[in-house]
Amino acid sequence: MQVFLAVPEAKAVVHCHPPHATAYAITGRVPPNLIIPEFEVFVGKVAVSPYETPGTKAFAETVVPYVKSHNTVLLSNHGIVCWADTVTHAEWQCEIIDTYCKTYLIAKQIGVEVPNVLKG
Ligand SMILES: [Zn+2]
Prior knowledge:
The chain has five helices and four strands, in the order αβααβαββα. The protein is an alpha+beta fold. The longest helix is centred in the C-terminal third of the chain and has 23 residues. The relative contact order is 0.27. Zinc ion binds next to loops.
């Protein structure tokens, strides 16, 4: 509800707990940018909101500082929330960030530096 109030162009919000993006959320870190173009185009920079008990008004308000400058927020120790003009696009953002986090985590296991080659 806080997203709809703050961002009138947001017509859909998807909240879920995809494991790879949630791994970042529970560590309070965001995945690096400038690795894969699709992530930059559809998600871009993400934020991590501070922890509050899920389901409370305080929890809903944790995303308010980020909603106008982001379309995806990692919810500390919980999951993610994405918003867009349609539910399909919001769901795509969830899929894209989780796949991006999964791919990046696998790439790091190869044991070499993952270069940031895209221009910011
Ligand atoms: Zn949840």
